[in-house]
Amino acid sequence: MKAAVVDAEGGGFALQDIDIAEPAGHEVLVEVRASGLCHTDLTLATHALTRYPPPVVLGHEVAGVVTALGPRATAFAVGDHVVGCLVQWCGDCPACRDGRRHQCGRPGTTLRDPHRQAPRLSRAGRPVTQAMGLGGFAERVLVHENQLTAVPRRMPFAPAALLGCGVLTGVGSVLNGARVRAGETVAVIGVGGVGLNAVSGAVIAGASRIVAVDVRPGRLRRARAFGATDVVDSTATDAVAAVRELTGGGVRHAFDVVGVAATTDQALRMTALGGAVHVVGLADGKEELKLSLPRLLLEQKRLQGLIMGSADPRRDIPRYADLYLRGRLNLDDLVSRRIALGEIDAGYAALRDPAVARVVVTSF
Q1: Which domains are seen in the chain, by residue range?
Q2: Separation between Cα atoms, residue 140 and residue 31, nearest integer Å
Q3: For residues 34 and 84, is the Cβ–Cβ distance under 8 A?
Q4: Is the N end or the C end of the chain the one with fewer CB atoms within 10 Å?
Q5: What does the pLDDT read at residue 285?
Q6: What is the pTM of this model?
Q7: Rounded distance, CA 62 to CA 161, Å?
Q8: Neighbouring residues of 213: CB distance < 8 A, sequence distance ≥ 6
Q9: Residues with Cβ < 8 Å from 106, sequence gap 6 or more?
Q10: Which residues contact 108 (CB under 8 A, 6 or more apart)?
Q11: What is the pLDDT of residues 183-230, one digit of tens each?
């Protein structure tokens, strides 16, 4: 099959022929119909391939059709439309049994044992790494059934692909992680793809004021279209002062989707007494935050990190798909460009344009 393979850190995505195994155990073979370009995959391809050594197939926002099942796979039938998710869960550890699948203690059970089983992907007889158990930049994916969720057949594949990461993270951070309630106030720092979904989540939650903060006017204009009641260009004004003025003393919830110390500090300072800061993004794995303990204690602030929107994919993906189909969750305007599998490098270049929200591979 064709796949976009990264052979060396910073070497780009090269369209190549590789082999994919037959499904075994709980595995499901999926014909990929859409695969979203997430910045995480670009970061891995250019700066951090130690976790997923090359040659590697990246891509983790996948939607497609089930074409074959392993002998122990029971969750799906051939012909089902499914969405992939990088949340890897065993289903039997304490976290999974408690409904915290995003905190599974044994995610490796969704993968093949490299010492006892042949690899899912190979090239000329040698293993090809399948990143995050998905490897979605390919014509087909072979995935443990726990990493897949069924969606209605009437849902288009391109927006469906975004459900498994960007939507799950952005909307889920608001609804699951922060549990924003109707009437509360929200600030979202960084309104790229995930931030726009956080704005959408705040709209669904019934937030009374949703302030979008960014450095790019084009993104702020788009945030208004997604439901932000106010926007703040942090290159033109003091974002903290502006948010506090707009909301009469600060927001109840601030979401840092950028993930650097400066933006997390802004989030802490733009929340009101008893407010909460939710760190959703991570721009640099070496960032360190210096906290004011008096502010944290005396202002009764709450600071938490959120991974994948605290998601239970089997619960949340169908929920968000239903919201989309009922016109309550805007995903169509996230899909700015559709490209072919061999155009991934160009697709990531396009994402540098603030007018482009998301790019999705739809031609294989």
Answers
A1: 2-164+310-363 (3.90.180.10), 179-305 (3.40.50.720)
A2: 5
A3: no
A4: N
A5: 72
A6: 0.94
A7: 5
A8: 187, 188, 189, 190, 191, 231, 232, 234, 239, 243, 266
A9: 90, 92, 93
A10: 88
A11: 999 999 999 999 999 999 999 999 999 999 999 999 999 999 999 999
pLDDT single digits (tens) 56-98: 999 999 999 999 999 999 999 999 999 999 999 999 999 999 9
Q: Which helix (H) or strand (E) segment is 246 a member of? A: helix 239-246
**Which structure tokens are listed for 322?**
């239903």
The gap between the terminal CA atoms of the chain, to the nearest Å, is 10
* Mean predicted lDDT score pLDDT of the chain: 95
Q: Among 160, 164, 140, which residue's Cα sits nearest to residue 68?
A: 140
The rounded distance, in Å, linking the Cα atoms of 101 and 197 is 21
Residues 149-173 have a mean pLDDT of 97
d(CA 230, CA 237): 14
Q: Are 13 and 345 in contact (CB under 8 A)?
A: yes
Closest Cα to residue 300, out of 252, 228, 238, 339?
252
Chain centre to alpha carbon of residue 187: 19
